[in-house]
Every structure is written in structure tokens, then in C-alpha cells.
Amino acid sequence: MNIKWLIVAILLIAVVVSGCGDKDTTTYETEDGQTVEVSTEQENEDDWCSVGTSWKTANPTTGEQVSWEVTGSEVIDGVRMCKAEYNTNSPTDEVTKMEWMWSENSEWVVWTYYNATGDVIYSMETKDGKTTIVDATGQTTEFESTQ
User: Fold this and answer.
1) Phi and psi of 126, rounded to 5°?
2) 0.90 cut: is pTM over it?
3) How many CA atoms does the CB half-sphere of 94 hold within 13 Å?
4) Average pLDDT for residues 84-111, to the nearest whole number?
């Protein structure tokens, strides 16, 4: 999956999880023949963590498929975190699965990236103005982040 599709995917997710969009499934076709399907299944339009909201895309030429779904929420340190999962079958990507968790105010965000065998290859957490990145070797990088 190239960077263009990752950016499109992130933008679509931002729209979907923000509560914007239809409650039905909508399918779009891109100029290069790929399809993007967006589905919202939220029971409460005001819920910032709409479990079941999803999108998926497929490339008819390569058979590559990508999907993203809001799968639930977890309470961490007393804060409700919404959780979404991204999956791809792209043979050229090292990342085959991502988990994304975020607080309602988006001040706490956690990204975890996995390879095809389920090993964590990268994680990033932003909380209280500080970002921590851990790579596959366990090397940690920390820096102050601005909103």
C-alpha cells in the first residue's frame, strides 16, 4: 500500500470516527479503479466512539485489500480510549495490522503496528504533551509534542 492510500485512509477514518457520514454503506470508486467502502453503524450520532464504523478498499488489479474498523473501547488509567483496527494483505508492506486508540479529547493517542507474524514492529504514544516511540528493537525515543 503506498503512502497516498495511507493518507486517504487516515482522512476517511477521521471523517468516520468524528460522527460525520451516513448510517448506510457507501461505495466509492477511485480514478484508478479501486473501490472504497465506508460503513457507519453507530446507534448514537453523538457517540464519539462509534463501534462498528468501518471502511474497506480493494485494488481489483493486485487483489490488495485494506480495512479499518472501530472495534470498541478500553479504559486505561481511568480514561476511556476508543479503539480501531487496520488490516491489510499487501505483500509489499511490512505492517499488516495497526491498532489505534484515542481519548475523546484526542490528547492521548496510541498507535501500535504489527507485522504478519503478529510481532510489534513500532509503537507510538502521545500523552500529556509527550510522545514516546518504541521500535522493533526496543529503542525508545521521547520528545515533547505540541498540539
Assistant:
1) -115, 120
2) no
3) 6
4) 92
Query: Is there a contact between 97 and 84 (Cβ–Cβ < 8 Å)?
Result: no
pLDDT given for residue 46 in this prediction:
56
The whole-number pLDDT of residue 21 equals 46
Burial class of 120 by CB neighbour count within 10 A (0 to 12, 13 to 18, 19+): middle
> 98: which residues sit within 8 A by CB, 6+ positions away?
85, 86, 111, 112, 113, 114
How many structural domains comprise the chain?
1
Please name the residue that has the C-alpha cell 486517504.
8
- Domain ranges, residue 66: 3-144
Which DSSP letter does residue 32 get? T
| Cβ neighbours of residue 58 closer than 8 Å, sequence gap 6 or more | 34, 35, 64, 65, 66
Cβ atoms of 89 and 64 closer than 8 Å: yes
Residue 8 pLDDT: 52
CA dist list (Å): 49 to 22, 27, 52, 92: 15, 22, 9, 31
